[in-house]
Amino acid sequence: MRIDVLGVGFDNLTMGEAVDRAMELIHGEGVHYVVTPNPEIVEVCRENLAAKIAVNGADLVLPDGIGVIKGAAMLGTPLKERTPGIEFAGHLMERMAVEGLSLYLLGAKPGVAEQAAEKLAAQYPGLKIAGTHDGYFKEDAPVVEAIAASGADCVFVCLGAPKQELWMRKNGAATGARLLCGLGGSLDVFAGVVERAPKFWSDHGLEWFYRLCKEPRRIGRMMKLPLFLVHIKQEKKKK
Fold it and tell me: Is the pLDDT of residue 212 over 90?
């Protein structure tokens, strides 16, 4: 049973439970995908039906932002905890490394995925990097074929929302991978190109503000957060 937050259904799992479920999907039959919506993506889903279908069609929908946690609580349907995509990815890679599973990295500017691959291979001994491709491509087919040829068990799809969610829904099956994870700008962090917010900011739900201070151009996107809270209050009044 998923927890509905403004039309997006979130799986009510702890981080450990989410990683366990992801590993089950990797070892299961068929192709599956994971999404990690924050309030901004929830707002996109309110305006974009295709994005909403792609997000809700995922096998795992994990709450990335503290705003989603607060929103769910305000609606009287609390979620267990926040499961940031980048942390989920780290725990997943730890588990994959133990089993010698392979990972394909897709997204970011040219060269970034390769940098990330080098660092991740060193950080998670046993993890096999099946291949990389930047996010600046016009045709899906060559990328899908490259992933399929790599034999990757898992793909980190870092194309930004909602492009990555739509891409996974459309192309997931053709990649041959068991699991695809939409992880936004995570490759930039893995590569060391972008610094993640220090622990204090993350622990206090202020990672979004730290990123805004570092990248003021994000102000337009960040304005969706107060809009999200307005919509939560409106939804609460209906109950």
Answer: no
Q: Which domain holds residue 179?
A: 3-238
CB within 8 Å of 63: residues ≥ 6 apart: 5, 10, 36, 37, 38, 69, 72, 79, 82, 83
Number of domains in the chain: 1
Contact (Cβ atoms closer than 8 angstroms) between residue 91 and residue 71 = no
Residues 6+ positions from 149 with CB-CB distance below 8 Å: none
Q: What is the pLDDT of residues 220-236, one digit of tens each?
A: 555 667 889 899 999 99
Query: Residue 23 and residue 96: Cα distance in Å, rounded?
Result: 8
CATH for 206: 3.40.50.10700
For tokens 């499961």, the residue is 83
Tokens representing 56 are 């809700």
Q: In this model, does residue 204 exceed pLDDT 70? A: no
Q: Nearest 10 degrees: CA dihedral of 90, 96, 100, 106?
A: -70
